[in-house]
């Protein structure tokens, strides 16, 4: 029987793309670059590739943060410090969080019936700021951030950190819910817990296979009752 739910944050409960677009646009304007759709799209491609390398242990967090801007600025012919761009962007990112339409309804439904937790690959300053802005902190027993853990999903070390901090979380009573196969679902597999893939776009799973799959957030409560 499920007692504990580990929720991924970005693109599961919060609309990260919207926050990212806002913060990136503000940063680019700050340094004198017009935030066109093409520029923002290219940044997102670079950023995603950098985070994949982090998951594979090929880059450090700081290298991810700065290299994405070094690559983008080189392509745009912009002479600006990647470190300063990172600091400005993260400050902007931390100020505003956007929930998906069913996020609050889902949390209201689950709160009190299960112990809810956040598991996120990001920085504590950014994530706690965004969660506070959109008012969802109150639903969660604890918030596990990779920056604090010193390890990233999907590593077993990240989940050992979570379980070590909250020993009442038992693997056989726990499920992880997230949108990323390589981070959330593989992480759950590595941790020996059941996995639910939030897949609103109907993507096809290849080498990583979740235990369960939902396309809508409000499909989750009924599924949990069956587990």
Structure in words:
With 227 residues, the chain is of the alpha/beta class. The chain has ten helices and six strands. The protein has helices at residues 16-30, 37-55, 61-76, 82-94, 103-110, 124-134, 146-149, 156-165, 181-191, 220-226; strands at residues 4-7, 115-120, 142-145, 174-178, 194-198, 212-214. It has a six-stranded parallel sheet with strand order 3-2-1-4-5-6. β2 (115-120), α6 and β3 (142-145) form a beta-alpha-beta unit. α1 crosses α4, α2 (37-55) packs antiparallel against α3 and α4 runs parallel beside α6. The longest helix has 19 residues, at 37-55. It is globular, with a radius of gyration of 18 Å. The N and C termini lie close together (6 Å). The model has no long low-confidence stretch (mean pLDDT 95).
Question: What are the salient characteristics of this protein?
Answer:
227 residues; alpha/beta; six-stranded parallel sheet; 50% helix
Average per-residue pLDDT, rounded, comes to 95
- Specify Rg, calculated over alpha carbons: 18 Å
The total count of strands amounts to 6
Overall SS class: alpha/beta
Low-pLDDT stretches are: none
Please bin the fraction of helical residues: 40-55%
Biggest sheet details:
6 strands, parallel
N→C terminal distance: 6 Å
Task: Report the order of strands and helices.
Answer: EHHHHHEHEHHEHEEH
Strand order of the largest sheet: 3-2-1-4-5-6
What share of residues are in beta strands? Answer: 5-15%
Shape: globular
Number of helices: 10
Quaternary organization:
single chain
């Amino acid at each position: 029987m499920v007692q504990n739910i580990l929720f991924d944050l970005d693109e599961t409960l919060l609309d990260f793309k919207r926050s990212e677009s806002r913060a990136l646009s503000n940063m680019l304007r700050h340094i004198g670059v017009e935030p066109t759709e093409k520029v923002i799209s290219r940044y997102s491609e670079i950023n995603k590739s950098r985070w994949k390398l982090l998951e594979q242990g090929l880059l450090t967090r700081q290298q991810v943060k700065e290299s994405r801007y070094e690559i983008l600025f080189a392509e745009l012919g912009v002479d600006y410090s990647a470190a300063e761009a990172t600091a400005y962007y993260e400050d902007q990112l931390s100020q505003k969080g956007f929930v998906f339409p069913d996020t609050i309804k889902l949390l209201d439904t689950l709160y009190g019936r299960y112990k809810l937790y956040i598991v996120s690959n990001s920085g504590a300053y950014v994530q706690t700021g965004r969660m506070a802005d959109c008012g969802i902190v109150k639903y969660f027993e604890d918030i596990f951030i990779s920056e604090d853990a010193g390890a990233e999903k999907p590593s077993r070390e990240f989940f050992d950190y979570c379980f070590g901090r909250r020993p009442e979380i038992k693997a056989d009573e726990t499920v992880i819910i997230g949108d990323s196969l390589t981070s959330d679902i593989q992480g759950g597999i590595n941790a020996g817990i059941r996995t639910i893939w939030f897949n609103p776009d109907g993507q096809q799973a290849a080498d990583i296979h979740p235990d369960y799959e939902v396309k809508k957030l409000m499909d989750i409560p009924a599924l949990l009752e069956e587990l």
